[in-house]
Amino acid sequence: MTNNCTDHYSKFLFIWFGQFISIIGSGLTTFSLGIYVYQQTGTASSYVFILMCAFLPPFLLKPYGGILADRHDRRLMMILGDLGSTLGLLFIFAMMLKGNIELWQIYLGIAISSVFSAFQEPAYKALITDLLPENQYAKASGLMQLASSAQYLISPFLAGIILTIMDIKFVFLIDVTTFLIASSIVIWIRKILSRTQITKQEQNNMADLKEGIQEFSKNRGIVNLVITTTLILFFVGLLQSLFIPMMLNLTTVKAVGTIQSICASGILVGSLFIGVYGSKNKYVKTLSISLFVSGIFFANLGLSTNVIFITLAGFMFFSTLPFINTAIEVLIRKNIENSKQGRIWSIISMVTYLGSIIAFAVAGFLADKIFNPLLESDGLLVGTAGLIVGSGEGRGIALMFIISGIMISVVALLIWKNRKIKQLDDVEDKDGELSQNKYYVET
């Protein structure tokens, strides 16, 4: 049994590697197209619309992708998702070869690719439960987070080099190649594990979606955890929106890019640690402690104008995120029936993503109309909060970060006191060894 378990983990590593290089390829395309469109138009709105085309379709279609992931072979769903994503890239490539490509053609191509990713991602996440026993969930989650961070750390660096030595059209070919490699690996894994079968009931899509919502809502611990995660993502969304505007008031554009990369590299360190060593069984405790510490580091981003101090605080904040994400993911994963995980992960993803969407919608208003004016030279808080964060351009954002960090630490304490969430850890204690082998038996 141990040998089979190890063998399944090695198969997961092959799939993970394929997705890792595929994510890098997608990052190359997103970064390169963003630069291309901005250079052609000179407007930020054109660049932002690329991001909208990349992220909005998956957000809207994830519930349906989850339903399909529960009703069909998840490996087949991944193959179709990867191969389908190449269609949009090849469309953009063909339009560029014709010359005088228009913006709507770029947007359409990105949207086509992102539609297929909406069906690939839920299947990829749920596939972990098919292949691995519960005691390997944390390692797999850490590695998946490591792969996800590659598009922010590796892809921009590689794209910058590629664009200086060759035309942007070749970036699409590279991305298509990474998709083909990823799908080929899954095809191979599917062939050698062809005996793995998952029983799925034939239902209509609306019935499946309704069942997923009911399954999600009946576990109050999971509901509380997801609502809490949504709140956390709201504060993290403020950081994503306002970190660069704050830093541009303190240093140069080049330095801001370097600082952002160094800060984000904390995700790699935390993910690599979890991927190698795994995580402890008491995930609620891990979540509470990691979240409390992350809030302290978050608040420190606004306490000083010293660039080195801010960079260190940012690195430490991002290094805690993999521990938070892994704890949340494992708590949810081991409390949901395997056959329903695809659709429930999609629902959870949509609910939690609302926190980021709301943050993006209000961040600019809060910074420009409320907090920054309060800490300008004649602002109302110069003589109070200004003594801590300073006054002048961007210090209102710093105050927002301090408040956000404090709120995250408060949320950590609330999680520790929440009885329903703490009960999510009890599943392992009640089921013991049988619980750890449940998913292995099914695969």
Number of domains: 2
In DSSP terms (H or I, runs of 4 or more residues), the helix count works out at 17
How would you classify the helix and strand content by structural class? mainly alpha
User: Going by CATH, what is the homologous superfamily of the largest domain?
Assistant: MFS general substrate transporter like domains
From the spread of the alpha carbons, the general shape counts as globular
For the termini, the CA-CA separation is 12 Å
CATH topology of the largest domain: Growth Hormone, Chain: A
List the uncertain runs. 195-203, 429-443
| Oligomer class | single chain
CATH class descriptor of the largest domain: Mainly Alpha
Could you give the count of β-strands? 0
Mean pLDDT: 75
Biggest beta sheet summary: none
CATH architecture of the largest domain, please? Up-down Bundle
User: What's the helix-strand series?
Assistant: HHHHHHHHHHHHHHHHH
Q: Beta-strand level of the residues, as a percent range?
A: under 5%
Helix content: over 70%
* CA-based gyration radius: 22 Å
Domain Major facilitator superfamily (MFS) profile: 11-423
Membrane topology: Multi-pass membrane protein
Transmembrane segments: 12-38, 44-64, 76-97, 140-164, 170-189, 222-243, 255-276, 283-301, 307-332, 344-367, 397-416
Keywords: Cell membrane, Membrane, Transmembrane, Transmembrane helix, Transport
